[in-house]
Amino acid sequence: MTLEINTLLAILAMAVATVLTRMSGLLLIRHVAMTEQTRTAIEAIPPAVLMAVIAPTAFATGWAETAACLVTALAARRLPMLASVAVGVASVAILRAVGL
Amino acid sequence: MLTQRRPIGDFLDGAKAILPLVVAVVPIGLVFGAVSVTKGLSALEATLMSALVFAGGSQFVAMDIWTYPASWAGVGFAALLVNIRHVLMSASLGTKMQAFSGWRRYAAMLFLADEIWAIAEFRAGVARLTPSRFAGIAMPFYLAWVASTLIGASLGAFLGDPAAIGLDFAFPAVFVVLAMGFWKGRETGSVLAASALAAVLVHQFVPGVWYIAAGALAGLAAALWTVKTKAVAA
Question: Which residue, B158, B140, B141, is CA-closest to B30?
Fold first, then answer.
């Protein structure tokens, strides 16, 4: 259990950067007028961010990942979240095992 | 008073909603802990990072570019870049926090991880988001992330490769499920398509994590463009 000074500084720098991003959205909406456009933009944030994070896995990693994302999306229409995730994980494991 | 829900019940309902994500994050935390030890971090340092930074994506990126001795500027800037999406996320969730008094909003935002944010957004879409509900969503997930990092860092190499049994896919799978939940019709389709296209293109040609910001902004642009063309048509 050691705590090295450079590592601690690096961790603190990461923490400060992350807190900054977490707070600035709150500060931003205090200074932006709520127009129709702002509301549309804010409503689009959740799907836009989620898709941006998963897109490389879903479309540019391999066929196993692409197919498993599709299976997970279909499962999510019927099953609760945990079950859908389990289906996704199982299908990616199977698809990788058969060499896709 | 009769319609007022008890805070403890609200807290437990929040915890129940985040449970699948708690299960999904444990293997990721174990992997993060194990990876960080191979990069020269002690178990204490890895756990401290999970407790103070609490942003998995940027922590993995930091491990990717970790040097010895550590460069605070390098990993600090990388964290800023990876987490720039939090600006959008906190702006979006901030408009749904009427039940939070001034300082509570900022305190809650300290725990703005993707998963917590997504569950909270989902809740805010169907009912008022209360502070106790948010605490119920955030606390189990935070504790699971920190504890699994500590366990992963302590067990280290004993854990094996999570990709072999598909566990690395748990995180993208959760995001696919959540993305499906935000479907609101054709407009959502254009947001998703723009975001996916921009993210994949930038991911192919630009090193680093710019693809997340690029996809998010492209999705926003698509939404605004749809509104504008609708206004013109009307």
Answer: B158
